[in-house]
Specification:
Low-confidence stretches: none
Number of strands: 8
Radius of gyration: 22 Å
CATH architecture of the largest domain: 3-Layer(aba) Sandwich
Shape: elongated
Distance between the termini: 34 Å
Number of helices: 11
Mean pLDDT: 93
Helix content: 40-55%
Strand content: 5-15%
CATH class of the largest domain: Alpha Beta
Length: about 280
């Protein structure tokens, strides 16, 4: 792995840094550009990485991770465009900003210069090194750089490459926003348990452990989720009644419409963020 620079030292950057160090990357080869002094101090104390507010500290880094909010990515890229950016790999974890817009901003002073850019859509379980990230590489990314990007994101969980950048909108809908859907279901199940007479504490414990167990069964088994569901749905039993109730309100269509809404919003956000 080459020397890696992070622009932005927030939670996701911290998770990536921790994952990289745990997987054997040297702390001395990780540099963080972060304007907040308290955050710089925290990262240095926890991971022993170099930090600082001056973007110049990233000049020796072959890979730059753009870990800032989407709304300020343009400003960051225009700052980077004032210095040599050729032969570098840029990995953007800023949700919604298209690689063509990142390319345009980075090449502000030289429109013919092609940048190697990997866009990725991680999700919040990456904070626990249990994430799922969708990645897309533009045509300027070499095979070695693609592997380097994969190594960075592998440090916090599963990595899936998509061939079309447009598919990152679907990745956003499925896994990027996905944790919230499961939290919503857990919340609803807990409230239902309370209405049926359980205390809040007992209902919560049962729901959380059941969610964890179901996830482990699904991930540690070769059996598809649909078959796992059938296996625990006995004819005439309690589970069947609950499933029939879900199906009576067209549960699958409700889920599809929810994910389509997320997908469509991802598309519109990309247009908004890249309009400048």
């Amino acid at each position: 792995m080459p020397k890696i620079g992070f622009i932005g030292g927030g939670n996701m950057a911290g998770s990536l840094i921790g994952g990289l160090i745990n997987s054997g990357h040297l702390a001395t080869d990780i540099i963080v550009n972060e304007p907040d002094d308290a955050r710089c101090k925290a990262l240095t104390e926890e991971f022993s990485v170099s930090t600082g507010p001056d973007i110049n500290i990233l000049d020796d880094c072959e890979t730059i991770v753009l870990a800032v909010k989407p709304q300020i990515l343009r400003t960051v890229c225009l700052q980077l465009a004032k210095r040599p950016t050729d032969n570098r790999l840029f990995i953007s974890i800023a949700a919604g900003v298209k690689s063509t817009d990142i390319q345009r901003w980075l090449s502000q002073s030289n429109s013919s210069q092609q940048q190697a850019i990997v866009r990725c859509m991680p999700n919040t379980p990456a904070l626990l090194q249990c994430g799922a990230s969708g990645l897309f590489a533009n045509e300027s990314v070499t095979g070695i750089q693609k592997q380097q990007a994969e190594n960075v994101l592998n440090a916090v969980g599963l990595v899936i490459w998509v061939e079309s950048e447009d598919l990152l909108n679907a990745v956003t809908a499925v896994s990027g926003s996905g944790p919230a859907y499961f939290f919503l279901l857990m919340e609803a199940m807990q409230k239902a348990g309370e209405k049926l007479g359980l205390t809040t504490e007992i209902a919560q414990q049962l729901v959380l452990q059941t969610a964890l167990g179901a996830a482990r069964m699904a991930t540690e088994s070769d059996i598809p989720p649909a078959d796992l569901r059938k296996n625990v749905t006995s004819k005439g039993g309690t589970t069947e009644q609950a499933i029939l109730s879900f199906q009576s309100v067209n549960f699958q269509e409700i889920v599809f419409q929810a994910l389509k809404a997320a997908n469509d919003r991802s598309i519109s956000l990309a247009d908004e963020l890249g309009s400048e």
